[in-house]
């Protein structure tokens, strides 16, 4: 039996940016993604978690083809995107769509939302004006909006409604893959569940493969099959969602899980407090990147980068001390 290649994968992905603090300052190199390997199977929902500045949004844009990698390659159905024919590359671009964190900035404020949603349909061509409008109205209805909303502008909608518009626009090209970058972080708590449920419904009805980027592990636990945890440009833990929470294998993930608010259950939970702030990607620490903030760090951690290796079945972590810290 021949195994199918992942629908989307990244091999040794690397992305750097040249930045400066001001006109007179020297340019530095910011390493956002540093040698990351990732595989996304067809029909899977994968979460990418981590603090702001860890590189998760950059990784999402690399996988979506919105940024070119400085090293490594993106593969679609097992083939490097750079080797695809123009027609195949167009299929990849249409089939991989991104939903952004700020739905207002991703919509043209001077374009009516019906035109924004219909734009991918118009670019694809092949339909009359009436057929295009009918398809656009169906998309609006699918995400919980009404036909009368089509002639309004983005500033006439709430944040939750604008995110629904962004979802409708992403679905207009009939994608295989949706990459949602912090899709609910800018929304009220009361609206977040609605958008997450909408994404799950769209995934089920349209047989989508989905990547959800979030700093909120509780959201990813609820919706994802598998979760990747990033820190300073690398993946430090990867596991099935339930297993990640039940048998954490990296101190950084332990701290992220401990930070999730809990309803009082009568038990006292020992706090896990990270020392200091996330180091600058302009000056990544040697050894284990997490060691300056890790309460377990030993000399080995300060000098030798830990490999991302399997600790349990399907559960990978980059930590020298996993067996000692998390013996379960």
What does this entry look like structurally?
The chain has 328 residues and is an alpha/beta fold. It has helices spanning 56-64, 86-95, 113-124, 129-142, 159-171, 189-206, 217-223, 241-246, 251-258, 299-303, 322-325; strands at 8-19, 28-40, 45-49, 71-76, 79-80, 96-99, 177-181, 209-214, 226-231, 234-240, 309-312, 315-317. The strands form two sheets. It has an eight-stranded mixed β-sheet, sandwiched between helices. Strands 2-1-4-5 form a four-stranded antiparallel β-sheet. Helix 4 packs across helix 5 and helix 5 packs parallel to helix 6. The longest helix is centred in the middle third of the chain and has 18 residues, at 189-206. It is globular.
- Give the neighbour order of strands across the main sheet: 6-7-8-3-9-10-12-11
Which regions have little confidence, pLDDT < 50, spanning 5+ residues? none
Q: Give the oligomeric state of the chains in this entry, treating copies of one chain as homo and distinct chains as hetero.
A: single chain
State the helical fraction: 25-40%
What is the mean pLDDT? 90
Rg is: 21 Å
- How would you describe the shape? globular
Write the H/E string, N to C: EEEHEEHEHHHEHEHEEHHHEEH
Structural class: alpha/beta
| Main beta sheet | 8 strands, mixed
Strand tally is 12
User: What is the number of helical segments per DSSP (H or I, 4+ residues)?
Assistant: 11
Query: Ends: how far apart?
Result: 35 Å
Question: What fraction strand?
Answer: 15-25%
């Amino acid at each position: 039996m021949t195994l199918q290649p992942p629908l989307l994968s990244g091999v040794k992905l690397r992305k750097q940016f040249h930045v400066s603090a001001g006109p007179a300052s020297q340019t530095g190199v910011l390493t956002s993604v540093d040698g990351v390997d990732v595989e996304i199977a067809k029909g899977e929902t994968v979460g990418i978690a981590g603090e702001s500045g860890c590189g998760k949004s950059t990784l999402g844009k690399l996988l979506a083809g919105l940024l070119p990698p400085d090293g490594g390659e993106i593969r679609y159905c097992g083939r490097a995107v750079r080797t695809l024919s123009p027609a195949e590359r167009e299929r990849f671009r249409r089939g991989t769509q991104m939903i952004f964190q700020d739905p207002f900035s991703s919509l043209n404020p001077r374009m009516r939302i019906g035109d924004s949603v219909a734009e991918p349909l118009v670019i694809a061509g092949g339909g009359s004006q009436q057929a295009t409008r009918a398809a656009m109205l169906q998309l609006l209805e699918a995400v919980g909006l009404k036909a009368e909303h089509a002639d309004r502008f983005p500033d006439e909608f709430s944040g939750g409604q604008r995110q629904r518009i962004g979802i409708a626009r992403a679905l207009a090209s009939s994608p295989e893959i949706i990459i949602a970058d912090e899709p609910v972080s800018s929304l009220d708590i009361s609206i977040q569940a609605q958008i997450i449920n909408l994404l799950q419904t769209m995934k089920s009805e349209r047989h989508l493969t989905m990547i959800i980027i979030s700093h909120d592990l509780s959201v990813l636990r609820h919706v994802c099959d598998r979760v990747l945890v990033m820190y300073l440009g690398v993946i430090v833990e990867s596991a099935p969602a339930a297993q990640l929470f039940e048998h954490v294998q990296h101190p950084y993930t332990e701290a992220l899980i401990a930070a999730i608010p809990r309803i009082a259950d009568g038990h006292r939970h020992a706090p896990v407090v990270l020392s200091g702030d996330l180091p600058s990607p302009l000056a990544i620490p040697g050894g284990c990147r997490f060691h300056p903030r890790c309460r377990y760090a030993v000399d080995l951690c300060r000098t030798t980068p830990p490999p991302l290796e399997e600790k349990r079945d399907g559960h990978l972590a980059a930590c020298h001390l996993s067996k000692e810290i998390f013996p379960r």
